[in-house]
Amino acid sequence: MFSLLLFLLSLMQVSAWPQWGGPARDFSTGIKLSDVNLQSPFKRVWQQEIGLGNSGLVVANKSMFTQVWTSTGLEAVVAMSTLTGETLWKTEYQTRFEAGLDLEFGVGPHSTPCYERGYLFSIGSTGELHKMDATTGDVLWSRSLWSEFPASRLERGFAASPLCWKDSLLLALGGRGCGVVALDFKTGATLWSVSDFEGSYASPSIQMIHETPQLIVLFADSLVAFEPESGRLLWKFDCPPVNTVHVCSPYYQGDGKFLICSSNEARMIQVESADKAWRVRELWNSRAMTPQVGNIIALDGCLVGPSSGSSIELLSSIDPLTGDLLEKKRVCGPGFLLQCLDGLISISDRGQLALGLVEDRKISVVYKNDQFLTGRVWSAPAVVGSTLFIRDRARVQRLELNSR
Prior knowledge:
There is one protein chain. By secondary structure, the chain is mostly beta strands. 4% of the residues lie in helices and 45% in strands. It is built from two helices and 32 strands. A four-stranded antiparallel β-sheet has the order 1-32-31-30. A four-stranded antiparallel β-sheet has the order 2-3-4-5, with no helix packed on it. A hairpin with a 5-residue loop joins β4 and β5. The longest helix has 14 residues. The two termini are 34 Å apart.
């Protein structure tokens, strides 16, 4: 059954990257770097100016979707042709900025849209939620989350991506009575709203843990699992970061094991089921991997992720059994990692692309380039087959991998 699931996911990856992190929200691509021309791995097919923002990219049905801040002071959802980069539609909406927001690195938007069954769901910097027809951009319904719920107001605005599950839309808002909110997929009506946990910037996910689907949310100081149909709390693990807010989403290794990372430390926990109850225990904690931003991937028996600290260009690999450091490699800084079959693609927050091959738990950097992207890069990429879609603050590009 598990092998069949992996096969079905691989088919999805050929045609779509429907949400933050891809079909399984784990940034896995199916790309084999040893088949790529490593001397000149990328061919730029097109690039387009689209407006400012940090929203990530999603791809479905030959369209690419993201969010932007317009020159007229509005936020907008944009659809572009994956073939040509032409704008297919652009739906603008008013946002409501509040006192206390830190706009040092731009106004956003930060959240990545979610595509499901021909519809697109997006959330702006101040919680403006829209359901749109993905073909036309027509708004079918909307909710003002910050106005309607006592949701957490993070200083850089809303960033967590929405998540579709069966006939509901799941939102990690944070806040009294609205830590997690479920809306009806068709109408937008509130189905349930639970918990008082304060929010974070991390995006939620659905994980199958010991044959039980669970909604996993990393809040300000706890990793929490809910029953996705009802919102019933299943278990929680306290993991408050020091002097920061969680940005990096937890990595699910399988078999009930989660890696939780912040700029201070990494923790591996074990979730177990016994006597119809859930039990959580910490296996280890380590300072060998401390990502402030970005994501974690698994390669060749090790866990790989960016590390903050005195050097912003360190990529750490650690032993998943012990948390011991295996290697720190100067790659290209913190940012997003795409998991390949035999290595990784790194996109740093300073705009540098790098390729790394992994063998015997060692990373060999085989390519670096800082000519594709400029300025801050906080937008999650999208991958469809051998095509990579990337974005800096103002531009979107389509890159094709060159084969040997």
